[in-house]
Amino acid sequence: MPFYEHVFLARQDLAAAQVEAMTETFSKIIADGNGAVASNEYWGLRSLAYRIAKNRKAHYVMLSIEAPAPAIAEMERQVALNEDIIRYMTVRIEALPTEPSAMMKRGERERERGDRDGAPRGDRPDRGDRGDRGDRPRGGDRPERAPRAY
Questions:
Q1: Basic and acidic residues bias located where (predicted)?
Q2: Reported pTM
């Protein structure tokens, strides 16, 4: 059976539980069509590059699917009919991924790192006085500019 990756964007005003329920509904459609959803990834509520149907953000979900083409067609038909889905895309791939997607790795890396120095934002040590800045003119010590001639 062929392999697919299906990503859909759900409206921003939905709860994460509602998005999860939609994911399970689409997984059931695939299962009814003699296919299987190998994995699903909820990427979270993310900002869109541009407004889509008055939405500035959307819930992103990716499904890794092994299913025949008719099952994919039925799932896409149901997705297109759903008013809560603002965009979707299904791509045929050569093999199912064995590791998390780049979006999930990015989130893990940010959680591990916390911040650049490893400390949470509010717990950073004071950097202290930066010292003298040399012979740079200060705010009131700037030389006067000559008026521009137009």
A1: 105-150
A2: 0.69
